Automatic annotation (TrEMBL):
Homohexamer. Pfam families: ELFV_dehydrog, ELFV_dehydrog_N. InterPro entries: Aminoacid_DH-like_N_sf, Glu/Leu/Phe/Val/Trp_DH, Glu/Leu/Phe/Val/Trp_DH_C, Glu/Leu/Phe/Val/Trp_DH_dimer, Glu/Leu/Phe/Val_DH_AS, Glu_DH, Glu_Leu_Phe_Val_DH, NAD(P)-bd_dom_sf. SUPFAM superfamilies: Aminoacid dehydrogenase-like, N-terminal domain, NAD(P)-binding Rossmann-fold domains. This is Glutamate dehydrogenase. Coiled coil: none annotated. The keyword Lyase does not apply. The lineage of its organism: Bacteria, Pseudomonadati, Pseudomonadota, Alphaproteobacteria, Sphingomonadales. Belongs to the Glu/Leu/Phe/Val dehydrogenases family. The keyword Calcium does not apply. SMART domains: ELFV_dehydrog. It comes from Alteraurantiacibacter lauratis. CDD domains: NAD_bind_2_Glu_DH.
Amino acid sequence: NRRNPHQPEFVQAVQEVAEDIFDFIADKEEYHSQQILRRIAEPDRVVSFRVCWEDDNGNIRVQRGWRVQNNNAIGPYKGGIRFHPSVNESVLKFLAFEQTFKNALTGLPMGGGKGGSNFNPKGKSVREIMRFCQSFMTELFRHIGPDVDVPAGDIGVGGREIGFMFGQYKRITNHFNGVLTGKGLEYGGSLIRTEATGYGAVYFLENMLKHRGMDLHGKKAVISGSGNVATHAAEKIVQLGGKVLTLSDSGGFIHDPDGISQEKIDWVKAHKTHRRGRIEEYVEAYPAATFHAGKTPWGVPCDVALPCATQNELLGADARMLVENGCIAVSEGANMPSDLDAVHHFKAAKIMFAPGKAANAGGVAVSGLEMSQNSARRSWKEDELQAMLKDIMDGIHGRCIAYGDQGDGYVDYVKGANIAGFKKVADAMLAFGVV
Ligand code: NDP
């Protein structure tokens, strides 16, 4: 706290990892004497910059942009760019810190970073968004590169924004390379990148259930969010025979007791992405559903829960409610959606709990595969990529078990993910000496 005043999200993320790492390194002198955890918890650099742009009325607007390059011990910095009014240095430092472990867990050679701006894309015209993205990249380009730092999308940054930023990067540098991931298929993007995070979170959930001799068939799922991760998680749950009961956005959640079918998911995707609509309008299209303004969906009884909206959206009281209502597994599609109290409660109740850094790593994994395809100047087919994604999620699950199996049938996936991710990065740092 003293080193990072007014950065509660960052302190929370470091504290969560430190709790598990302390146990693991207790008898490992080298990690202590080399201050490895402290070094990982101090970003390599934080770049903060002015983003100046002109709105449609000719007003000059000034926003702040950041790139946090947390750690590049095992590969170029890699992590998304977020455009949301809630973005600040603390949020980006927490995300870059988490990303470092997540990327290590995938088994691919990627370091950890994150960036973004407090720019709010809601209500902006396409031309305003384009001008903002161009201005953002006019500064960012000097800090990134295919072997240096490879940003991707995140909240508020989808294929369209990546296109605007890539166009500006190419124009300024005259280089066509894999400097960004999440690109369009026409200019170096990868198949299944869009689906990868949501699908991956469900593959991880399936792996946890399988480990206990169960599957998703007939399971009732409660999902928050209605963006990229949430809708693709819902899609995969439905494909594997589960029933999705809820989706949400920052206005509240909808509960559809009939189940949110593929057709309804397609409606939500079109409504949220193309029409920029609100989830509450779902009940006009599907009247059997109800809308609950200003609320999160955790009170709806379910077998499995997937928080897929944003950080700290599932608190201790919500965790208690989920467990009391019979929820047996939680797979985090979003980054740190459960607060520390909720995580402690899930662990104490010994339900299956997959932290975001393990469960939502499918997205960055396919981004890593996009980098490989760009370097090789080729494109893999969809079925090859689907198989690689599934294989990577299986690998992450296996690494979590290796370090998180408590020996009594319970797997502490948080501990497993933290230790496996830490060990890979820490061992690389030890090899480099004191730098
Ligand atoms: P989107 O922008 O597509 O969707 C975000 C969703 O979360 C929207 O439904 C949004 O509602 C809701 N939301 C945002 N802020 C809040 C809030 N404060 N309270 C309630 N709901 C909120 O983002 P993604 O689906 O891509 O990302 C969701 C989460 O997954 C984030 O934590 C992201 O970091 C994480 N993630 C995403 C990856 C990816 O590949 N996309 C990869 C790994 C992690 P509204 O429309 O009202 O804003």
